[in-house]
Structure formats: C-alpha cells, structure tokens
Design brief:
It contains 20 helices and twelve strands. It is an alpha/beta fold. Helix 10 crosses helix 16. The chain is globular, with a radius of gyration of 23 Å. The site of D-mannonic acid (CS2) has 9 residues, from helix 10 and helix 14.
Length: 489
C-alpha cells in the first residue's frame, strides 16, 4: 500500500476527521433484508447512499454485498468491516460521509454456496443489482439471452452449482429459494439498460427454460423485476483522487467513492415482496418510467458517450475537459437539441432543454474526473439506448440524423484507433473488440461493425448508404478533422 496510512475500519473510525458525517444508528441492531449484487463504486455511491439515509431515518435497511466477479469484496471491504467513505465534490466544495450500510460481503467465485444462501433467506425480499450493461449477457439489439456468450455456455454445461453469469446465478438462487420455501422476491436492476427490469426478467426466464424449466411456474408467481432509472456520476478513482482522499481522511480507504452531489432514482411500482421505503428518502416510485428513462439515456448518457469518444480522439483525458472543447461542445449540444429532444416522449414536456443544460454542467464538474476511456468502455452495450434508438426515432419521422450518425462514426473511429494501421493509440475495452482487432483498417472495421445485426439490429445493419456515410466521417475523425466532420451536425 503506497500511502503507508492505517486502513479505515471498525478499529480506526475514531481517527477520521471531525468534518466527516457519521452514522448514528445502531449497526448491530439492523437486520439484512436487502442484498446487492455487484457492490462496485456506483452501488457504493448510489443505492447504498439511499440505504444509509433510510438507516439514518430509523429504517432497517442494512445490506449484504455480493460480487460475482473480481474485485474481491473480501479484500476491499472485508478488512474495513464494510465501512467506507463517500465524498461528494463540486467545484471547491466537498462533503464526506462514513458509510456503514454494507454489513457483510460475499464473493460468489470463492464462496458460491454462501452467496446463494443469502438469496434463499426468507427475510431477504429484495435484491438490487449493478453488474454493468454487459453483465446481463444479452444481445444488445434484442435483449434476448446471448446463448453464445462464454459464461452462458459454461452455465448451460454445468449444473449451476458454481454459476458464472448473472442469469445463471439468479436461476440457481431462485431454485434454492423455491426449494427452501423462501417466498416471493424483488430483483431490482439498477444498470443503464432500457427497460432494465424487462431485460433482467427475460434473461432469467430464458436461463431457467434452458436449465430448470420446472422453475418457470414458480418464477411467474414469485418474481418481480421492476425497471429503474438510476443516476449519479461516480467515476473510478484516479491516482490524484486517491492522494487527495489520503490527505483528507488521514486513513487509507480502499473502497472510497467520489461522486457528484446530484442523484436520482426512479423505480417502477411493480413489486411482489416487501421492499425498502426508498421514496421516504427521495426516490420516485412511478407507474411508468419511460419518460425519465429516455431523457436520461438519450441526453445525459448520450452526451457522455459522444464527449468521451470524441474527447479521447481529440486527446482529452477526462469528460470535463472534452465538454470545454468548443467544437465538441457545440456539436454535442446542437445534435441533442436538434435531433434528440424533439423525439422524446411528450410527458418529458418543456423541461428537456433545461435537462440538457444541466447535464452538460454536470459533465463539466472539474472536481469529478471521469476518464473518457472509462465511459467509452463497452460502448457496444450502450450505443443502442444512447444513440441508435434516437437515430431510429429520427428515421421514423423521415428526418436525417447527421449529428447522431457522426456520433456512431466517433465510435468507429475510437475503435479503429486501436488498430496498427491507425497508430495503435489504445486497446479498446469492449466485448466487440475481439471480432474487430484483426481488421486491416478503418474501412474494414466499419464494414464488420456496422453490419453486425446483434448491435445495429436488422434495420440499421442492412442500410448500405448509412454505412458509407458513417465510414467516411470516421475516416475524417481519425485524421483529426473535427470541425469539418462535426460542423454539419
Ligand atoms: C457513464 C455512466 O460510464 C458510463 O457509461 O455514462 O456510468 C454515467 O456516469 C451514469 O449513468 C450517470 O448516472
């Protein structure tokens, strides 16, 4: 450990500086009714923050965190007795809170039985989930379970005693819950997928159908998968952030999170079992969340994706730098204003322009260093909801979408920049890269990528004219012609 500081944990809490807000509820008196799968930075800065508010208000909302994949929670949170800090930053302001809501952790790879047991415990009636977009192992264009996915293949071959995928793990857990009479359960997806609850329910049913079909009637009667919209920018920590936190805390917190002050959680009112009263601490429980979902994914997330792809190509490290580049800002603002906002659901009303301005301001928060490459990770699992569905809405109305097409071109250029023919500038981190890394040049890569039906659907993947326009723009972006290519957007 570089810092040489003592580690944050139960024994060192009293060494935290006085300005850190602390829980004043009795940790030992809480009961575990909610389990979270995927206790990464986003969970620790978002759903756990709501749980902390509930505990503060006297509710029983403590959590157990389960990771299906590394990093191992037993190394991250175990030595800290589940404690960590979350700091909200904006400009010069910073507010740190000591978090105690995560009372236990289990790593499913090391201890599959322990992880499955939590989901069969009758008192546990709600499971929240953040495993990133690709964790659902679905085909992006359709939402169906990707039967060719290596983890799904492994789970189909095995007997689900040591499940590798989220769908496999959940089917194993639901089977055990049924067998032990655990009763109904809510599985609440908190990842940025359109209709995330429906995608989750779909992959679970398909996995059950393939491995334990006798479980399907129980699933129909006992499982609820509400959709949600989750929002808070919680980037991975940079080395500078770690140093800053070391100085601020005087202790080493390996699980610390830095986030923006803004937070939002909209949850579809579709439950089967008891759940935390999240609405008491600011969440919205609604019958239809499609307006908020479209606004968040097509405005905030789309702007992040456009700025990160173009920002990386233009040599910016962080999205707050990209949003200060006048060419990029003008293009992103203009594209969303002209090509996205007019097609949002009516229920969004006149507030969408304010939302766009607010989103660009949030991205511009210099105290939050969100790496362009982090946002660009797994764009193959993000582009449908952020850029392609808005482009479809445009085409359905018979209108061109040059700005959105330039956004797709930015993705092509970003990936092509990883090819030897285009200077090997970085190695893209995306499941799609495996099938593109052997491309000779941007033209080859664009041809292979843009005709991929699993990402672009049967409509866009077959549109040759579209492919030609996007490829030409990608070439220009690779040559650094930002003003020319983006100017028309
Ligand atoms: C980001 C999101 O990495 C990404 O894909 O666009 O994590 C984004 O910061 C959150 O959705 C904000 O709520």
């Amino acid at each position: 450990m570089a810092s040489g500081l003592p580690r944050l944990g139960g024994a060192t809490l009293d060494r935290l500086p006085a300005g850190v807000r602390r829980p004043d509820w009795m940790r030992g008196a809480t009961r575990i009714r909610t389990v979270h799968i995927g206790a990464g930075a986003f969970h620790r800065g978002h759903q756990a923050d709501y749980a902390e508010d509930l505990l503060q208000g006297g509710w029983d909302a403590a959590l157990v965190g389960i990771n299906l994949k590394p990093p191992a929670l037993r190394d991250l949170l175990g030595p800290q007795d589940g404690f960590y800090t979350r700091t909200l930053r904006e400009g010069d302001g910073a507010e740190t809170r000591l978090m105690g809501a995560i009372r236990g952790v289990v790593d499913a790879e090391a201890n599959p039985g322990g992880a499955l047991d939590w989901l069969s415990t009758p008192e546990v009636t709600t499971v929240t989930i953040t495993v990133t977009e690709k964790g659902y192992c679905h085909v992006p264009a359709t939402g169906a379970l990707d039967m060719g996915h290596p983890d799904i293949q492994a789970d189909l071959r095995g007997d689900l005693d040591r499940p590798r995928s989220l769908p496999g793990f959940l089917v194993a857990a639901l089977r055990a819950r049924r067998d032990e009479g655990g009763g109904p359960i809510n599985l609440v997806s908190c990842d940025n997928l359109p209709g995330n609850g429906r995608i989750l329910a779909g992959v679970v049913r398909e996995m059950a159908d393939a491995t334990a079909p006798d479980l399907l009637p129980w699933i129909e009667d006992n499982l609820a998968c509400p959709s949600t919209v989750v929002d808070r920018i919680v980037p991975a920590l940079t080395p500078e952030d770690r140093d800053w936190l070391d100085r601020r805390l005087g202790l080493r917190d390996e699980a610390a999170v830095l986030a923006e002050p803004f937070r939002q959680w909209v949850i579809e009112d579709s439950f089967r079992a008891e759940r935390p009263q999240w609405e008491a601490v600011g969440a919205q429980i609604v019958s239809d969340l499609s307006p908020q979902e479209a606004l968040k994914m097509r405005v905030l997330n789309a702007a992040q994706t456009l700025l990160s792809l173009l920002g990386a190509l233009a040599g910016h490290d962080f999205s707050h730098q990209a949003v200060r580049n006048p060419v990029l800002l003008g293009y992103v603002h203009g594209t969303i204003l002209r090509e996205v906002l007019p097609h949002l659901p009516d229920a969004v009303g006149g507030s969408s322009k304010d939302y766009l301005d607010q989103s660009l301001r949030r991205i511009g928060n210099t105290a939050i260093r969100h790496r362009c490459h982090q946002i660009a990770t797994d764009t193959s699992r993000k582009i449908r909801q952020r850029l392609l569905d808005p482009l479809r809405a445009r085409r359905a109305g018979g209108q061109p979408g040059p700005g959105l097409e330039a956004g797709v071109a930015a993705w092509v250029a970003y990936l092509a920049a990883g090819l030897p023919a285009h200077r090997d500038r970085w190695e893209p981190d995306d499941p799609v890269w495996a099938r593109l890394a052997g491309s000779r040049n941007v033209d080859d890569l664009a041809q292979a990528l843009l005709s991929s039906e699993d990402i672009f659907g049967s409509d866009l993947s077959r549109d040759e004219a579209l492919r030609g326009r996007i490829t030409a723009r990608a070439r220009g972006l690779l040559d650094g012609e930002f003003a020319r290519v983006l100017g028309g957007g």
